[in-house]
Design goal:
Elements lengths: L10 H14 L7 H9 L8 H5 L6 E9 L5 E9 L9 E5 L13 H11 L2 E5 L11 H14 L15 E6 L1 H16 L4 E7 L10 H5 L8 H12 L27 E8 L3 H13 L4 E10 L12 H16 L6
Helix pairs in contact: 4-10, 5-6
């Protein structure tokens, strides 16, 4: 029996996990060659890949723009807008991709970002923030905060199309969920953008890795404890000025104050090392008076939102995410 066989997942999920594990090989350490190869890859947006990742809706225009970060660096943003809406004052949703602050790219998130733009009728701004180990924490946070402030400035995209500058949404998965949570806290404290809501998809919010699910699912499919250690080692580094794992810029769960944050959706995966810290963040937000919804999806591992076709709950999870974004981005009466 393989490790995958021992997990209570639907057969289609097990088959995908096996294929992903074979493609990674036996060495799961994030070495430079593996990092470069992984960053460059994304699933093609065609059949049969879209049977797993979900299709990219034809009714969405995908383009690109950029903004200048606080240090002058140009940061690329991949944009998704429902076709025929360039003259509409649509709300905007910033998306921060996952990958442990080390891996991932914006093109790999075309299916989910285009789906959100199409179904929630928003402009999605997928931020290509700088990655570790070349750029240690808190560089990714700075880039994402700067992205939110740029989006709130009313600056048009490269085609001249605009979006609503107020009432932005924040969203992201895994490390991107971490960044969305941190950005919401920074902007609450320092200002610069009006955040109306946030959606955190299996977010990494506690870099101490002390929750029970980290130990329980240390050898889980997709994300293991070894992976998490490697990601954090790259992201934090070992310099004298490296951020402490308890710093709220790394671990938003440990912020002294959680009140005053925007309405928050937290989605977790039951077979995920990050499950319990996501649930703990949802409870802490609720205790602080924040309007919070938490849904834990059974029999799925970390990352399942990126392969909804290989799970039984992927469609429902995406539908919940779309409803949350649509209902909080638009007037409550719009359905």
């Amino acid at each position: 029996m393989t490790v995958t066989d021992s997990w209570d997942m639907p057969l289609r999920t097990k088959l995908l996990v096996r294929a992903l594990n074979r493609s990674r090989g036996s060495d799961r350490i994030l070495v430079p060659d593996e990092i470069a190869r992984s960053r460059a890859w994304f699933a093609p947006t065609r059949i049969p890949y879209t049977w797993v990742t979900g299709p990219v809706p034809a009714g969405v225009e995908i383009a690109g723009t950029s903004f200048a970060a606080r240090d002058g660096q140009s940061i690329h943003v991949r944009t998704y807008r429902p076709r025929g809406t360039r003259d509409e004052d649509l709300p905007a949703l910033l998306w921060f991709h996952g990958g442990g602050w080390v891996l991932g790219n914006t093109r790999g998130y075309d299916p989910i970002c285009a789906w959100l733009a199409d179904r929630a009728h928003v402009v999605v701004l997928n931020v290509d923030y700088r990655l570790a180990p070349e750029h240690r924490a808190p560089q990714a946070v700075h880039d994402c905060v700067d992205a939110a402030r740029w989006a709130a400035s009313g600056a048009p995209d490269a085609s001249g199309a605009r979006w609503r500058s107020g009432g932005l949404g924040l969203a992201g998965d895994s490390a991107g969920g971490n960044l969305a949570a941190v950005v919401a806290q920074v902007l609450r404290d320092e200002g610069g953008a009006d955040i109306a809501h946030q959606a955190l998809v299996y977010p990494a919010v506690d870099a101490t890795m002390s929750s029970e699910s980290v130990a329980l699912h240390a050898e889980a499919p997709i994300l293991t404890r070894v992976d998490m250690d490697a990601f954090l080692a790259h992201y934090l580094g070992d310099a004298e000025d490296a951020l402490d794992p308890l710093d709220p810029l790394v671990s938003p769960l440990h912020a002294e104050e959680l009140g005053g944050l925007p309405p928050t959706l937290v989605q977790t995966a039951d077979l995920d090392p990050l499950r319990d810290e996501g649930a703990a963040y949802a409870r802490a937000l609720r205790d602080a008076g924040v309007d919070t919804r938490h849904t834990n999806y059974a029999r799925v591992p970390h990352g399942f939102m990126s392969f909804p076709g290989a799970t039984r709950v992927g469609v429902a999870a995406r539908a919940e995410l779309v409803r949350w974004v649509r209902d909080h981005a638009h007037d409550r009466g719009l359905r």
